[in-house]
Design goal:
The chain is an alpha/beta fold. It has helices at 4-17, 42-54, 58-82, 87-101, 109-124, 128-144, 149-165, 172-197, 202-216, 223-232, 236-256, 263-282, 290-305, 310-327, 329-337, 348-356, 366-371, and strands spanning 361-364, 381-383, 405-410, 425-428, 431-437, 443-446. It is globular. A four-stranded mixed sheet has the order 2-1-3-6. It has a two-stranded antiparallel ribbon with strand order 4-5. It folds into two domains: 61-333, no CATH class; 348-446, no CATH class. It has 17 helices and six strands. Strand 4 (425-428) and strand 5 (431-437) form a beta hairpin.
Length: 447
């Protein structure tokens, strides 16, 4: 992902120096020179703790992401099993998660989803102290990826209501007093942890964080145009449209068979749909991350759980398989047509130049940072995507290059920056895919 260095730079620096600063973004804005409050700190400190134990290498960071994936799948499976979902539905979780969320790169979403699943699982246990731990994990999930609040709210309220409805002696005031006390204790605990991670500079943090949020939040009148833009980009009207069509099909089938639908499936579909609506309005740019994942997850689970006649069930299952294949077309094309294994380029020349010019300023992108430097970047390294001293974004032309800097970037950046050398595109069965580079890990150095 283009913003990998944005999300892991502070964690690597904490593990090495103990400072909550992302040195690779020092040229981006004055707000990132001596602090890193444009993002909530929980992800950086969680990853930094991991890196302190296992080292700051690509393998270590990828293993961290994989552990987050596994934790999410395990605890989500425990939740679904508690509410009576079938084993087939549970087995669909890792398939949908790995194929939908693998595109997020090294973003904080994997950790937030892991904390989210753990927190919700604690809530299902319906005990006072377990409510406390549940709310704590949900709090750190929110402080890892703020957009997770879109799903925290409906799922938390839904689980609490189900827990109350299953009480033998329904004492409303007593029950919700227990919940509120647990929530308040968790709030104090998580907020104290949060203040510690930002050196108790709350107002400083709030100023930086809201500034960064203002760059990403879409005004209400522009939400619909943004949705249509994302859907019309490339072949998204087919790739994304297919899973939305499957979701609408499942919704129609649920409404048509409403009386025969198991209660647990009704609740799950309703709560997930509420979360999707909140997500779309709070942060519509995350359409291809959270939204597509939860749309795919609820659709697949609905197909597995909905009671239908054998023929109708088979047709719906066949449609789901077709949609799954359509959604994976970019990954399939990359696997078949592109050289996705970075073993064919020797980076010795680049490394030699860097070692001979230690005081040079280098603009390095996410691909070079990983495959050339193993995230051990030169001391004067700057993240190429955040090098223009503007809020957003990367250099759009080679003319923007400072003559006193050296660019070390993927050759495929020629797709977004004018003046860079052309690069080969992936070809499959006589068709060229302009959005997929033949060698995505080919690195060029521009002096």
């Amino acid at each position: 992902m283009i913003d990998d260095l944005f999300f892991i730079g502070a964690a690597i620096n904490i593990a090495k120096n103990g400072d909550f600063v992302n040195p690779w973004l020092a040229n981006w804005t004055e707000r990132s020179i001596d602090r890193y409050y444009v993002q909530p700190p929980i992800h950086s400190y969680s990853l930094a703790s991991w890196l302190s134990c296992f080292g700051s290498s690509p393998e270590s960071i990828l293993l961290f992401q994989c552990c987050c994936y596994i934790i999410f799948c395990v605890f989500t499976a425990l939740i679904l099993r508690k509410y009576g979902f079938s084993k087939v539905a549970i087995l669909c979780i890792p398939v949908v998660y790995t194929t939908s969320m693998s595109i997020v790169g090294l973003r904080q979403d994997a950790l937030a989803m892991a904390y989210l699943a753990i927190g919700l699982w604690f809530l299902t246990l319906n005990r006072g102290w377990k409510y406390f731990f549940g709310f704590c994990f949900l709090g750190v999930a929110w402080l890892s990826a703020p957009i997770s609040i879109a799903y925290i709210i409906p799922f938390t309220l839904g689980i609490i209501w189900v827990n109350y409805s299953q009480e033998k002696e329904k004492q409303f005031i007593k029950y919700f007093r227990k919940v509120i006390i647990s929530w308040f204790a968790a709030f104090i605990s998580v907020f104290s942890l949060f203040l510690w991670t930002i050196n108790f500079e709350f107002f400083h943090f709030w100023d930086d964080f809201t500034w960064h949020a203002s760059l990403r939040v879409v005004p209400p009148e522009k939400i619909l145009p943004l949705w249509f833009f994302i859907l019309s980009h490339g072949y998204n009207e087919i790739i994304y449209g297919s899973i939305y069509l499957l979701y609408l099909t499942c919704l129609f089938m649920l409404l048509f068979k409403l009386r025969k639908i198991p209660t647990h499936l009704k609740y799950f579909f309703l709560l997930t749909s509420v979360g999707l609506v909140l997500n779309l309005f709070l942060y519509p740019s995350s359409l291809r991350y959270y939204v597509n994942f939860f749309v795919a997850l609820i659709s697949v689970i609905t197909v597995v759980e909905i009671p239908l006649q054998k023929l109708n069930k088979s047709l719906l299952a066949f449609l789901t398989i077709v949609v799954f294949c359509v959604y994976q077309i970019p990954a399939i094309v990359s696997l078949l047509a592109a050289d996705i294994f970075p073993t064919h380029q020797d980076y010795t020349e680049i490394k030699s130049y860097v070692s001979k010019h230690p005081n040079q300023t280098y603009l390095i992108d996410n691909v070079a940072a990983r495959f050339v430097f193993d995230y051990n970047l030169p001391k004067n390294a700057i993240a190429w995507h955040f090098s223009q001293n503007t809020a957003i974004f990367y250099p759009h032309s080679l003319e923007q290059k400072d003559p006193n800097t050296v660019w070390i970037i993927a050759a495929a950046k020629g797709a977004v920056t004018q003046g860079l050398p052309d690069y080969p595109k992936a070809e499959l069965w006589g068709r060229k895919f302009n959005s997929i580079p033949q060698k995505p890990y080919e690195i060029i150095m521009i002096k």
